[in-house]
Specification:
The complex is a heterodimer of chains A (293) and B (308).
Chain A: E1 9-19, E2 26-37, E3 42-46, H1 53-60, E4 68-73, E5 76-77, E6 87-90, H2 102-112, H3 117-130, H4 146-158, E7 164-168, H5 176-191, E8 195-199, H6 203-209, E9 212-217, E10 220-226, H7 227-231, H8 246-258, H9 274-281
Chain B: H1 22-38, H2 44-58, H3 64-100, H4 103-108, H5 114-158, H6 165-177, H7 183-208, H8 212-236, H9 245-257, H10 267-271, H11 278-304
Helix pairs in contact in B: 1-5, 2-3, 2-5, 3-5, 3-7, 3-8, 5-6, 5-7, 5-11, 7-8, 7-11, 8-9
The chains are: A alpha/beta (293), B mainly alpha (308).
């Protein structure tokens, strides 16, 4: 994160209300929400359905206007079309023109980003390789599976080499292997210094990739902070041992029991995740073999 | 998957952002055209071929004047019908569908101003209408060409004795005057111009409509009223009585909401052998340009702040 750069995303006192037909009252979708995302950060926006995540993203992307408050991308107001020049967006359950092939889809969005023909050609091949759809480049999107559509969606989001990538439920409907690939990709975007805003219901995934997290509930940002701080249980300590025999474990337990005010809450064998097991058994690659207790 | 080096292309894209980019508009227009072509709309050419060949076969016992007139009537009728359907249904189908399918999200979250999206869609539809009219014209003119030569041969065969060169020349002149002639191109252009206005009407409706069906119905209603607009205005505001500013204002509003489409119906005159003055063609072109501008502007005003 650089001090010289403006914040990647700045949302100030954002409120968005929607009128209810034939009624005076309005539905408050987002209520005085403020947040900022620094360049190069991976920010997770989580919350139950209807909590205001998508509305916040839509305001940020200029698809709807704020009732009050403001939002900006790299210092430029979201209401300005030019602000979208540095943004890539993957909508939830993306629909693209199903009569276009994978390569044509990326080329179309490349043209909208103002890329030149030669650059589009190179970029299309790069991105199809990146999302592992080179083999389906000339197949129409009507024949793509949900996971393939999600990947082509990711490719179109990256076509203009954005500085900010907004991903709305990027792994919805994708199998664990595909989901892991998308997660790895987000990690690589982070390594490249690209700012990512991720909205997901898969909290485990958010936990794996996000630097900071904001929790939205009923339109309000109820908690926000670095992931480490938010999920750390301050009065508990975890020790994970490898090849520890029963004698050593007994000694440790005895030691703990001798201390006043210290309680052993849990001990046992750590468990892997079902996802890691699935990937191991189905031959899927996994960079992270994190164990969870 | 490995992300390649994410160096910005040609520096910062947003610093190079242009308020209006013809290449972005063309990308949307060509995409719209491709979409309609791949929806297999050109299968209509088969129906068109059947219609004009049918018109040839069914009316063989008529006089050659009647036969050529019927062929032209049927062809122009079918061209007007197809061009209007493509304009209204094509526009009504594509924009609300983009909104319903949320395809619009992925377009408008790129640096694309909303008016460019609308203009691109309209141009794509007009391009499709133009290409389909060119293809129909080629078919129509080819059938007319062969038919007029066929009629000439039949008429010569039916003449008693050996016809003189003068008789043949006079007969040929008579038949060809009602056959393939440059004037027909003006008819095709008028059909295109009317279809362009119809597409612009559908564009306005689609920016506030909630569904494809609603857009089609409202656009068709405006389209049909447009054909009776001049009659209604003449009835309520006879030319000599149009004194009051209020009357003029109302007449102007009606003329904008319901464009005078009857004025584009020059094909009946052309088929009957009348010539269309170039001044009328220029007037029709100017009027079409005016309606396209007004309707595109209204569409943009309605669409600019639309919550998606």
């Amino acid at each position: 994160m650089s001090e010289d750069l403006p914040t990647a995303v700045q949302i100030k006192n954002l409120t968005k209300t929607f009128p209810v037909p034939f009624k005076k009252e309005k539905v408050v979708a987002v209520d005085n929400l403020s947040l900022s995302v620094m360049p190069g950060e991976v920010y997770g926006l989580i919350g139950p359905n209807g909590s205001g995540k998508s509305t916040t993203m839509k305001v940020l992307l200029g698809l709807i206007s704020a009732t009050s408050g403001s939002s900006s991308v790299f210092g430029m107001s979201s209401t300005e079309t030019a602000s979208r020049g540095s943004v890539g967006f993957l909508p939830e359950n993306p629909y693209f023109y199903k009569y276009l092939t994978g390569a044509e889809t990326i080329a179309f969005y490349g043209k909208l980003c103002g890329l030149k023909r030669k650059v589009i050609k190179e970029r299309t091949s790069e991105l199809l390789n990146l999302v592992e759809l080179e083999g389906a480049r000339d197949r129409r999107l009507a024949g793509y599976s949900k996971g393939m559509l999600q990947r082509i969606g990711l490719a179109q989001a990256l076509v203009g080499r954005p500085k900010l990538v907004v991903l709305d439920e990027p792994t919805a409907g994708v199998d664990p292997a595909g989901s892991r690939k998308i997660r790895d990709l987000i990690m690589q975007l982070k390594d490249q210094g690209i700012t990512v805003i991720l909205s997901s219901h898969l909290l485990e995934q958010v936990q794996e990739v996000c630097d900071r997290v904001g929790i939205i509930f009923e339109g309000k940002l109820v908690r926000e902070g670095s992931l480490k701080t938010l999920i750390e249980i301050e009065d508990q300590t975890e020790i994970v041992l490898e090849n520890a025999g029963s004698d050593l474990l007994k000694k440790i337990t005895d030691l703990i029991n001798q201390e006043n005010g210290v309680n052993l809450i849990r001990s046992g064998r750590p468990r892997t995740t079902l996802e890691t097991l699935f990937l191991k058994e189905t031959g899927g690659e996994s960079k992270d073999v994190r164990n969870e207790s | 998957m490995t992300v390649e080096n994410n160096e910005p292309i040609d520096n910062e894209l947003n610093s190079k952002f242009k308020l209006f980019s013809p290449s972005r508009v063309m990308a949307i227009a060509m995409n719209t055209f491709t979409q309609l072509v791949r929806m297999k709309v050109f299968y209509f050419l088969l129906i068109f071929s059947v219609l004009i060949i049918g018109a040839n076969v069914l009316f063989l016992n008529f006089t050659f004047e009647q036969e050529l007139k019927i062929l032209q009537d049927v062809s122009f009728g079918a061209m007007t019908l197809f061009a209007s359907i493509f304009s209204i249904v094509g526009t009504a189908l594509l924009i609300p569908k983009d909104i319903e399918d949320r395809t619009l999200y992925s377009i408008l979250t790129k640096p694309v101003p909303r008016f460019e999206y609308l203009i691109g869609k309209l141009l794509g539809i007009l391009f499709l209408v133009a290409v389909s009219l060119v293809l129909m014209s080629i078919l129509f003119f080819a059938v007319l060409f062969f038919r007029q030569h066929g009629i000439l041969a039949e008429e010569i065969n039916q003449m008693r004795g050996q016809p003189t060169a003068e008789q043949i020349s006079s007969l040929k002149e008579n038949i060809f005057a009602q056959g393939l002639r440059l004037e027909l191109i003006n008819g095709v252009v008028a059909v295109f111009l009317k279809a362009a206005v119809a597409a612009a009407i559908a564009l306005v409706v689609s920016t506030f409509a909630s569904s494809t069906l609603f857009t089609i119905i409202v656009s068709l209603v405006i389209y049909f009223i447009g054909h009776a607009q001049s009659m209604a205005l003449d009835y309520y505001f006879p030319e000599g009585d149009m004194h009051g500013a209020f009357q003029r204002f109302i007449a102007g509003i009606v003329a904008i909401i319901f464009p005078n489409l009857q004025i584009f119906n020059v094909v009946d005159g052309i088929v009957s052998g009348q010539s269309v003055p170039m001044s009328l063609m220029f007037r029709l072109t100017g009027l079409t340009g005016f309606y396209l501008f007004i309707y595109s502007f209204v569409s943009w005003v309605l669409f600019a702040k639309k919550e998606l």
